[in-house]
């Protein structure tokens, strides 16, 4: 008997994997956490039947949400990650000479699951520079200040993550950032969720001096074409020189293409400028 996992990306679109083995299933306080071993994409982590990562392509997302803002800033020493309990974003951040990374993940079970089933992704969580807070990131950012970079590595805007996609939240992040601070968030796909992408860009633009969207191809995410949106207080990411910064070990991100990531296809550029 064949076993398959399917994620309904919309009510009319789904992505399916043939499963070799169900490794883990648990209902946490916040969501159902599942881990599957698949034929073609390795291990897969899902939350409420939505794909968070696969070991086949996770590096694309984690590299792009980390290295683009870090190298744009150029001198970030204190970083806040909201969400990201799998540890992939932290792993990439630690490739840089940052002094402190605060990880705020509302669901402790996500962290523990990643440590057990995704050790190559969660490996940075035990680093001495990392502090882990299992609480609501929306409330955390209201009370904690002084960050050079805030990364919103969240799930889709449903359930506990809804408040992470609001103008009010972006204002709170702005206040938590230092003078030259930058924030970046994963901001969904314009292929399937154009209205949401447009709203996020508009809301972030109302808060930050510079708001820039960049993209990556992530095969297992809805639409396979993903956006990230960067808000910056003082640094123009398109004008910033990054060529004198150290080379880092990556599989997808490259400094040679850094500025080109911000060049948007006409349909995306038109969408966010409407």
Notes on the protein architecture:
With 274 residues, the protein is of the alpha/beta class. The chain has 2 domains: 4-54, Spermidine synthase, tetramerisation domain (Spermidine Synthase, Chain: A, domain 2), CATH 2.30.140.10; 58-238 and 252-273, Vaccinia Virus protein VP39 (Rossmann fold). The chain contains 8 helices and 12 strands. It has helices at 58-73, 88-93, 108-117, 119-122, 137-143, 167-176, 194-205, 266-273, and strands at residues 4-10, 13-27, 32-38, 43-47, 50-54, 78-83, 100-104, 130-133, 147-153, 177-186, 210-217, 225-232. The strands form 2 sheets. A 7-stranded mixed beta sheet has the order 8-7-6-9-10-12-11, sandwiched between helices. A 5-stranded antiparallel beta sheet has the order 1-2-3-4-5. A hairpin with a 2-residue loop joins strand 4 (43-47) and strand 5. Helix 5 (137-143) crosses helix 6 (167-176). The longest helix has 16 residues, at 58-73. The relative contact order is 0.14.
């Amino acid at each position: 008997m064949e076993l398959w996992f399917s994620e309904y990306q919309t009510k009319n679109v789904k992505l399916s994997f043939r499963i070799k083995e169900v490794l883990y299933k648990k209902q946490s306080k916040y969501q159902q956490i599942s881990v599957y071993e698949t034929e073609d994409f390795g291990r897969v982590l899902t939350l409420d039947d939505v794909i968070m990562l696969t070991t086949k392509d996770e590096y694309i997302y984690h590299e792009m949400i980390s290295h683009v803002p870090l190298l744009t800033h150029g001198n970030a020493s204190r970083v806040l990650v909201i969400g990201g309990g799998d540890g992939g974003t932290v792993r990439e951040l630690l490739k840089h000479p940052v002094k402190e990374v605060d990880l705020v993940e509302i669901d402790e079970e996500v962290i523990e699951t990643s440590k057990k089933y995704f050790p190559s992704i969660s490996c940075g969580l035990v680093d001495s520079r990392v502090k882990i807070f299992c609480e609501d990131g929306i409330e955390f950012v209201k009370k904690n200040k002084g960050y050079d970079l805030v990364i919103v590595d969240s799930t889709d805007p449903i359930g506990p993550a809804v408040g992470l996609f609001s103008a009010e939240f972006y204002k709170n992040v702005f206040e938590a950032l230092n003078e030259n601070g930058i924030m970046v968030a994963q901001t969904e796909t314009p292929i399937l969720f154009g209205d949401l992408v447009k709203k996020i860009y508009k809301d972030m633009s109302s808060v930050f001096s510079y708001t820039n969207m960049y993209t990556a191809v992530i095969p297992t995410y809805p639409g396979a074409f993903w956006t990230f949106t960067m808000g910056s207080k003082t640094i123009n990411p398109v004008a910033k020189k990054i060529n004198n910064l150290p080379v880092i070990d990556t599989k997808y991100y490259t400094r040679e293409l850094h500025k080109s990531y911000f060049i948007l296809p006409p349909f995306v550029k038109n969408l966010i400028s409407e």
